[in-house]
Fold each of these.
Amino acid sequence: MTRLKAAITAIHGYLPEYVLTNAELEQIVDTTDEWISTRTGIKERHILKGEGKATSDMGAEAVRGLLKKRGIGPEEVDLLLCSTVTPDMKFPATANLISHKAGIKNAFSYDMNAACSGFLYALVTAANFVELGKYKKVVVVGADKMSSIVDYTDRQTCVLFGDAASAVLLEPTEEDLGVIDHKFETDGSGYVHLHMKAGGSLKPPTYDTIDAREHYIYQEGQPVFKFAVTKMADVSLDLMKRNGLKVDDVSWLVPHQANMRIIEATGRRMALPAEKVMVNIQKYGNTTNATIPLCLWDYEKQLNKGDNIILTAFGGGFTWGAIWLKWAL
Ligand code: ACO
């Protein structure tokens, strides 16, 4: 019996209308376009504005576009996974709300959280369902309204993040295409450098936690920066080595978009030419779970069937990993 693989058969993204430029940030915190551009590579990011608008609204937009692009109805979806660090509510899962808003009625759905690595972890989980043969159409959404957890008085973090959603459809194939292999790692001791201090079971919300601004991203930039470069490059190289992939065999590297300097250093450490490294951080900033599918969406026209693509991410946890994907479209 042929072993099934899970191939990406459609991809779509959603960016909220409002664009927050570096010039506007100069009015909000003590920063400059020059500092943000040279230290991060970011020029602008999209922000979801409007009362009652949440991560699920962006996710549902991405999913509606995805299904339209593939020419299928919402009733055909079997499973929807959403990776997010900014769920609409602690429960129910944002995946449930996205399904509801996108008219998906015949599927089960749930969220996954592995911070910036979440989309990769969810993609492999979804691929496993597809490979079973029982699930024919599985949607993976990476979505975050980072502006809901960014402290716009903290100049070190507020310049980095943006809001967005992106979604992919996975379907079974008997060809040697799709999600081929992955390597994931986690080190929970890294939580000290990147977390949200309050709002969870450790420290439920109180007036004091609000006064202390503990419901926002806490990040020690430099240790995170160092780990991000070494871990993304090394896990990608390990994955390539065990599959006999040389640098020349790789068509594209799709790194999590956290900082232009991290992206460039990762490419250099892997000895990959810059033109093989996908970059769109200048337009969107770090959209956490949406960065990797947004890159694939932006570069879709340049991708060819059979391209070897390495997806890699690093994020809170610490979590990191890489996927070898063979483009199927
Ligand atoms: N504008 C102007 N100056 C600033 C700003 C700003 N926005 N932010 C910091 N500075 C200042 C600092 O105060 C410091 O000044 P000092 O020397 O007078 O003290 C100086 O710039 C240098 O600060 P550093 O922290 O050394 O700056 P660095 O070059 O490390 O850049 C940054 C900071 C952008 C946060 C970087 O460390 C980074 O990108 N880290 C990794 C982020 C990341 O990958 N996160 C993981 C994913 S997120 C997730 O999982 C949710």
Amino acid sequence: MVKQVAKKNERVEEVFDLFIKHVKNFLQEAHLNHEEYTNFVNWADRLGRKGELPLFADVFLETHVLRAMYTDKPGTQPSLLGPYFIEGSPLIEAKDGKPLELTQRPDEAGEVMYFSGNVSSTDGKPLAKTRVEMWQNDASGKYSAFDSDAPRYNFRGHFFTDENGDFTVKTIVPLPYSIPTDGPTGEFLEYTEQHPMRPAHLHLMFEAEGHETLITQVFFEGDKWLETDVADGVRLDLMTTLEEKDGYKVSSLDFVMRKN
Ligand code: BEZ
Ligand code: FE
């Protein structure tokens, strides 16, 4: 009897066949000529050489991957991981009875903000000891380890929810920012006459046993870039407000994780 040998990676074949099927339909509709094809290949080559492939994919594709995976599912909607996440952030712990503070320099510039949340499961139970990873830009709109001179883990850290699934962390209000425009991604934005701005956001990643990891962002009402976010990462249930309180800002949002 001949033994059936499983294909090395059937999933790659399945996805590639689908990709080609849709590319054929797309080309029939777009009537691409050979010069346009060559221009595209040269531009994509520059994109790769400049190391901008992850940036371009995160701006123009990641949101569609997420929408295809999660629209209509219960629980908090995921949003973009983006290109500015790095591994190895420090553990943040409460010191001297003070609230948790996202890693920052002494006298860090920016508007102080206390961000609070509750993490629960889709069955309604609070999720104690959930690992919360948080990262954001600084008062110059830059991310540590990328375009800023700040220490590698500035405005990056992780902590755990308390026994009720709650957390509060002291940070600063993040700023809207421009994605890099000096390379092939910027070239593409110019061709298509799009601005390069993302609305201000916090990045959050939640990990709890028995649940899907939730990677998402939090946005603030009133931001002028919400409706035209270049990366299309805004979702209605990720919106919060910034309230003034005794010289600092407070904001909050609750998160619901899906079971595995
Ligand atoms: C971000 O949220 O940091 C991001 C997402 C997609 C593209 C660029 C940046
Ligand atoms: Fe970001």
